[in-house]
Amino acid sequence: MDSDSSDYSDDSDNSDGTYVNLRLESCAQPSVIPKPSNYGQYTNKMHFFYKYILVDLYENEYAVHFREPVDTEVIQAPNYYAIVAQPMDMGTIKQRLKNHFYHHVGEAVSDFMLMLHNCFQYNLRGTMVYERGCFLEKFFMERLYTIPKGPEYPHAEVPKKFRKLRLVAPRPYTTTPLRPPTAPAPPTRRASTYSLRPRTATTQPEQPLIQPQLQLQPVPGRVLTRVRPMVGPKPSNLGKYSKKLNCFEIAILEVAARSDFGQDFLEPVDVVMLEVPQYYMIVVKPMGLQTIKKRLRNNFYHHIGEAVSDVMLILHNCFKFNKPDHPVYKNGQLLEEFFWKELKQIPTGQDIDRCRKHSAANECTPKSVTQ
Known about the structure:
mainly alpha, Histone Acetyltransferase, Chain A, 2 domains, two-stranded antiparallel ribbon, 2% strand, globular, disordered N terminus
């Protein structure tokens, strides 16, 4: 997995970049190269995640089955990719960090939890791989709480292992998607012909340096003042509602939505009501707690890691837009502290599919939090 990423093809990469882009007879490699229009960054939180969580687990002897994509011939499991739809491994996460594949650390956390989800989905309880997956999950959930709190910003230091892979130093973070550096085009010699026809003035007004990534589309009959993320999955990509997602909803989402510090994060920002017209020029992917609940209701998620990533996206947007002395920023700090504390209480191990109507609410006892 530490080979040069240029060996991987990106011809069949999907829009979300999470599915397989290179499929061999016995091994599937997830996409590790971002599209030029969706270039990410390497941040302080990603550096901590890589150095103090991923590397420690990668070098552990229990992680030997999770370092590279599964080779069905080696492990003699020809039906693996028929059961596991979205393969993931620790080497792929390292490559994605190297290539600036992620936009915030929540996406890397989601990939690691996807890897564990695949382990429990395919391997039977009591097998060696299953038990080692339980050890990795326990260690991982304990270490998640140590990720630096507060804003996420570009990290200047490049890991030594990344330098060996000829990693280009991180570029300054902007509100527009970062793109890989391209070589300058060689100068071309213009033909020595001149037109006798006078040129007309083609001066145009200067365009702003920062263009909004999300446009508020006008709707006939009403004024659209906020961007609402998609809450319904495609029919071909329907998720599920599981025991872990049920506990996540009861113990985290519902409690946070009732708390005082969660009122600012229920819905995506209304730029007119809050008088922040520049919000969607800075925040590219809006998210809210009610949006996550709607996604749970519509079976949008395939595993708990995707829901965790969305909550981390809310916090990322909060710290990115608001100043430290702003009340919303302080509420974001309270939400972050509550989120990491309660996330450790989510059940570990195998995830069980559960019908939403018959979910047992007493499996996860919510706490009353007001501040």
